[in-house]
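Long-time lurker. I teach an intro course on protein structure, and each term I like to show students one example going from raw sequence to a predicted 3D structure in token notation. This year I'd like something fresh instead of my usual example. Would anyone be willing to generate the tokens for the chain below so I can use it in lecture? Attribution to the forum is fine with me.
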Amino acid sequence: MTISMYQASVPRLVNMLTNLSAILDKAQAHVDAKKIDATALTAFRLFPDMLSLSRQVQIASDTAKGVVARLAGVEIPAYADDEVSFADLKARVEKTIAFVSGFTAEQIDGTEDKAIVTKRGDKETHYTGMQFLLGHAMPNVYFHVTTAYNILRHNGVEIGKRDYLGKP
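-- Reply from a regular --
Happy to contribute to a lecture. Here you go:
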């Protein structure tokens, strides 16, 4: 049995981003109820050398849109990375969900062996489609959504495992 690259990507990404959106709603409700400046959470880092909640959400979004675009062979949309509020972050996530949801199985399936090259500065990394999806992109999305979850949970937002998992 072969894996469907579409089923391993689009529905999973939409699920995690939908869960992230719901978690951001709970964070907004938390700051409203506690009368906390939202920036205390959106700029929060678990450790000084880690990225803030806002960056965690941005990277999860960038990775999700990037993997499906690369697999489908279309241009990756660029977002400004200027989100400062929960509403801004939620809008970014929703925009990413809409983009990712726009792909069909015909665009993604069959890309297991597609050559994918990523660049970071002068460094190029070469992958096959499946290696990029399962070994890089999906773990990266899960990592950044998990870190965003952990930042909010650490700061008292009442979220739990069901919020993270949603309805897979």
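Some talking points for your students: The longest strand covers residues 115-120. The CA atoms of residues 46 and 164 lie 18 Å apart.
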